[in-house]
Design brief:
The protein contains two helices and no strands. By secondary structure, the chain is mainly alpha-helical. It has one domain.
Amino acid sequence: MVRRKLNRKEIALWVLASLMTIVTLTFYLWHITENVRLGYDIGRGEVRKQELRDEIKRLETHKAAFSSLERVERIAREELGMTETREDQIIYKDR
């Protein structure tokens, strides 16, 4: 079998075709990798969003418990020493 010699133009075309193939494959692999990375980021964001929603619910529950009238009245009586107002302590203002 006899091989013919390639001239410069044919070699340049082969090199160019090889480079284009390598660039295309590299871009394709980068694109796939980036999509996977973004998918993981979205998943972590969804988990964090759910954690924050749970934290908000927990804090709202604490807020409701701390601002209940029974608790406020108990703290006013026991810790602050407050009592019910007497009738002589009430001042009515004419309008």
